[in-house]
Design a protein that fits this description.
Blueprint: H1 2-10, E1 13-23, H2 35-54, H3 63-67, E2 73-79, E3 82-88, H4 91-111, E4 115-128, E5 131-133, H5 135-143, E6 151-154, H6 156-161, E7 173-180, E8 184-191, H7 200-208, H8 218-241
Parallel strand pairs: 4-6
Antiparallel strand pairs: 1-3, 1-4, 2-3, 4-5, 7-8
Helix pairs in contact: 2-4, 7-8
Length: 242
């Protein structure tokens, strides 16, 4: 039995997996006329971003940077209110690629007045059709619903493997202490979507359209705004230096 288990694990591929959960999906049909259309648009943005990041840039802008992702094998799955991104390949490239995809998804979700939270892990994965298993899947599944905010962060296995000094797009991931349900503050790499959506008023307006802001929901929104303010402040400081 032990030999069989080892053989199965050996056949698994190493890759990054991101699980994204849409906040407030339960009962969304009561406040949204076409929730499935909104989810479809978010998934379409994911697929479009996947194509853009891997295509050759015809006018030469960022061509070198875009081509660094061209050999990565990526799949996007959607099961009810959960979106799964799976990429096989180099650890740093795969994790950085997922940060870029996650930024596009978070920004689109805010435009749709929906909140997205999730986590990214790197490790062994096995997939058949829409079934995914493996140590990385188990880890990310235990983390992706734990954060009290709108955003995406690295689980420990991604955090400990990732080398920030090798990043090509240094704005896309930033160290930050995320508020979680089980362990309180967790200092890890977080997807920095703020540089793609620098409009605090629009974010607050989006929050107001998400439904009743109950005592359970409010901390998630205020934690998101705290993250926005910190990343926005860092961007302002960077611009001043330049």
């Amino acid at each position: 039995m032990i030999k069989s288990m080892v053989t199965k694990i050996d056949k698994m591929e190493e890759g990054a997996i991101t699980l994204l959960d849409i906040l407030g999906w339960k009962g969304i049909w009561q406040r949204e006329e076409n929730p499935l259309e909104k989810l479809t648009r978010i998934i379409n943005v994911s697929q479009h971003s996947l194509n853009i990041f891997k295509e050759k840039d015809e006018i030469g802008i960022f061509q070198k940077e875009k081509n660094i992702f061209k050999n990565l094998k990526t799949e996007i799955l959607s099961i009810s209110d959960t979106i799964a991104l799976i990429t096989y390949g180099d650890c740093n490239l795969s994790l950085e690629f997922h940060s870029g995809l996650s930024i596009q998804i978070i920004v689109q979700s805010l435009h749709e007045n929906l909140g997205i939270r999730g986590a990214t892990c790197y490790g062994k994965i096995s997939k058949k059709n829409n079934i995914i298993v493996g140590p990385a899947v188990d880890e990310v599944a235990s983390w992706y619903e734990s954060a009290n905010w709108i955003g995406v962060f690295h689980t420990p296995s991604a955090l400990y493997r990732f080398k920030p000094e090798l990043m090509k797009y240094k704005l896309n991931l930033k160290k930050y202490s995320v508020s979680t349900k089980n362990i309180g503050k967790f200092s890890t790499n977080c997807v920095n979507w703020v540089h793609a959506f620098r409009n605090r008023n629009s974010i607050q307006e989006s929050f107001l359209k998400m439904g009743p802001i109950t005592p359970e929901i409010e901390p998630k929104l205020s934690n998101t705004l705290d993250f926005f303010d910190e990343m926005d402040k860092q961007l302002d400081a960077l611009i001043e230096i330049k």
